[in-house]
Amino acid sequence: MGISKDNFHGLVLAISSSIFIGSSFIVKKQGLKKAGATGTRAGMGGHSYLFEPWWWAGMISMVLGEAANFAAYAFAPAILVTPLGALSIIFSAVLAHFILKEKLHIFGMLGCVLCVVGSTSIVLHAPQERAIESVKEVWHLATEPGFLVYTGLVLIAVALLIFRYVPRYGQTHMIVYVGICSLMGSLTVMGVKAVGIALKLTFSGLNQFIYFQTWLFTVIVVVCCLLQVNYLNKALDTFNTAVISPVYYVMFTTFTILASMIMFKDWDSQDASQIVTELCGFVTILSGTFLLHRTKDMGDNPSPSGESPAFANPDSSPGESPVLTNTNSHGSMNCGPQQQQPQPQPQPQQQHTS
């Protein structure tokens, strides 16, 4: 698609947002680890991280990233802005590899590349932003039957996850926390886009804050953001950052673009080839996420030479393979070469004399 002036502004803001948000994952994780060492972990319901400067530094970085993202939605369509969040995967995964020592396997790196390729494919075939003259137009789109049904399904799913699945599987299944963040995130983006359009029109001389719809969209954004931050903290404190980032990205992107298609009807202006290309981009992103998820345990196992799994020596002998060594915290069970046990010597037989 052609890059208009507004789309270019949205593109620059979206890239800046990815840099800030990707870095915030790492800084916040550092704060959560320090807070967990002296108090109750966030994953166990604690809030000691609120007194940790590192967590607040990460939060500031995330706020800056979200502010840039907020502005990007005012200039460009969601299908252009949202996929660029793939860059935050790269930043968070690489920084986690070097700073948090959460090792990233070579196939995890390939997964990051696939995520970027898929996102690029989507961006290059994204539709143009539709012209909106008033926040009332956005309210009309949000109250159409199709989007009301989507909103109702999202709220029911989030309620089930929070009240039924979080107590049972929150500490063992990453998809529970990430699912809550992603589902609510799709509604957050629609609200952000509405408020962003209102601000853009207001700055151009058409005050939109005289309408109650603008304030209602603002309340929706605040509530959804607070819910997302809470469960994102739990996910970061419980699971590997290098895996949370891409999974959260894929689910958030999928639900956000789905919500945008329903509410703003972005696909109405596209032909079949453009839609198919965007769907292929989604498949590519999902493939990258699968690689990252499947290789996370391979990255966590240290190589015998102390090298990163992405750069470990492939010529190591079979007995030195980390795959054959159980490094669980409950004890070490070495399945590698064992020392040969000495054979018992035969006892001399006693001779009986009559």
Automatic annotation (TrEMBL):
Homodimer. Residues 297-354 are annotated as: Disordered. It is found in: Cell membrane; Early endosome. Residues 337-354 have a biased composition (Low complexity). InterPro entries: EmrE-like, Mg_trans_NIPA. This is Probable magnesium transporter. Acts as a Mg(2+) transporter. Can also transport other divalent cations such as Fe(2+), Sr(2+), Ba(2+), Mn(2+) and Co(2+) but to a much less extent than Mg(2+). It comes from the Eukaryota. GO terms for biological process: magnesium ion transport. Residues 314-336 have a biased composition (Polar residues). It is a multi-pass membrane protein. GO terms for molecular function: magnesium ion transmembrane transporter activity. The chain crosses the membrane at residues 6-27, 54-75, 81-100, 107-127, 147-167, 174-198, 210-231, 243-263, 275-292. GO terms for cellular component: early endosome; membrane; plasma membrane. Keywords: Cell membrane, Endosome, Ion transport, Magnesium, Membrane, Transmembrane, Transmembrane helix, Transport.
